[in-house]
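Quarterly update from the structural biology core.
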Amino acid sequence: MRKALLLSLVILGACSDEPTEAERQAAVAEVEQAQEAPPLAFGPQAIGYPDIEKNNLYGAGCSFVPDGGGLGAVALAMAEEGYMKRDGEIMRFAADKGSKELPYLAHGQYDGRDYAFSLTLQEIEGKEAGEEAINYPATLAVTDSKERVVYQAEGIAQCGA
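Predicted structure, tokenized:
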């Protein structure tokens, strides 16, 4: 009888060590996540006047300058497209027409092939900055193709024509 009871306990103990299907899936997900490369930092550059001329980036919209970033905008948000500069190249983004509409035909979200960016304005805190321009406290966030934030900054978005 004691042997039967001991054998039953050994068998039950062996069964309880078997991982369940949910435990197996969680372990696989953990391994896959550990194998995923960390996001690469996205270092935007200021879009200068030569870039604007060369790429014909004129028109109404919003330009974002990060705090402490000088006078150069690192993102342009316009009616049809948005622009950023990285590694000396202008990157084009399509305006997400379903996203929040911002002043001067800009949109809150722009999508590119490898990255996307969103521009969030504190519209009630906007201050006139000329005849047809308003400065808004703003946040710019850039995400990679896996929707991981690779760049985020607070600053000023100047919107105008």
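Residues 2-16 form the longest helix (15 residues).
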